[in-house]
Structure formats: C-alpha cells, structure tokens
Amino acid sequence: SQKIEQNSEALNIQEGKTATLTCNYTNYSPAYLQWYRQDPGRGPVFLLLIRENEKEKRKERLKVTFDTTLKQSLFHITASQPADSATYLCAHNTDKLIFGTGTRLQVFP
Amino acid sequence: DSGVTQTPKHLITATGQRVTLRCSPRSGDLSVYWYQQSLDQGLQFLIQYYNGEERAKGNILERFSAQQFPDLHSELNLSSLELGDSALYFCASSLQGLSNSGNTIYFGEGSWLTVV
Predict the structure, then answer these.
(1) Chain A residue with minimal CA distance to B88?
(2) Were B26 and a residue from A10, A51, A54, B3 both cysteine, which residue would form a disulfide, CB within 3.0 to 4.6 Å?
C-alpha cells in the first residue's frame, strides 16, 4: 500500500541553524508532495507544494526538494527561529490527501 | 483565518450518543474533506465530497457518515460513540478535487470531541 513516512522523533535545533526534515514514500510515485505546518490544537496550514518534475521549491526561508530516485522530500528552514517551533507534516495527493505522522520541530534560543 | 468554519469547537458527550459536526467551506470551494486526529495517531483521512457527491473514502467507520448539502456546507455524523472516538475532527476545503491538479486544501480549526 502507499505509505508516506516522517521521522516521528522530535528535532531540536538552535536558533539560527538550518532545520531539515525528511519525508519518505514507498510503493508509489506521487505527482505532488505538500508540506504543512501544524501548531498544537490548530488546523494544519499549507506551506509549499512541489511537483515531481521540480527538483526544488523555495519560499522565503523555506526550501523543499523532491528526489524521485530516493523517493524522498526534504524540507529545510534556514535561519530558524523559536517561532518556527511546530509540527511539520508532509502529504501526498492522488485522489485524497494523505498525511505523514509529522515531525515536531523545537527551535531553542 | 483559513476561511473554513467548523462548529462546535468543543463537544463533550457520553458513550453511545450521536453528534453532528458542521463545516462551512471557504467561499467558492467545491470540495470538503474530513479528517480525524487523535493523540496517538496522525491525521487520518475520513471522507471527501465534491459538489455534493462523495468523491473519496478513507478509513471511516460504519458508525460515521457525512454529507455535503447544496449550499456546499458539510456535516459529519458520529453515532454509537465510543471512548476511542475522542479526537480532534478537522474539516478542510479546496476549490477542486485533488486529482485535477496540485490543489492545496485549507483546514478549519477543528472540533474537539470528548466522549466520556
């Protein structure tokens, strides 16, 4: 079955460093991958979408890559700030949008 | 504010009861999605409607049902509630169905359901 996986362990980094989160998928080839941010008790908020024919997509301090050979997407936050602390979810869509379990990012001052 | 409105925000009910969660999508969006998020699980896709018709189904229990009305708002009905149904239920909407293009979806703030 189609699976999308994220590292369930929390990522703790120091302010100013680059945070890198990983999303792996198996048993299929999604045409798109999306990344969302979710704060505790709140609904997920869309950040970036990347298509399979795009290697990289950027938005301000955010960068997403899509490696169809490795079946992996990387999500980078450069110059991270404590306000970036949240859970980050990757999702793939075919006829429905399926989310990974998310990785919690904690940025310390 | 995503533009997706969910009511009620919080709900406490007893086992065996039935509740209805309501969702108003963003203005102009035709697709509505329902997700369940419990503490020990991620976002679980339940069901999607597009312009009043069921479009995709996920791991939705038979005790749960949903519909989308002509004005495009949607309701999720949960019956014979069990303790394990306690979760945050999200509604989301998008302009079109996901299979058409790389549409993103916009989430509401969720309805907290506690079954006691």
Answers:
(1) A41
(2) B3
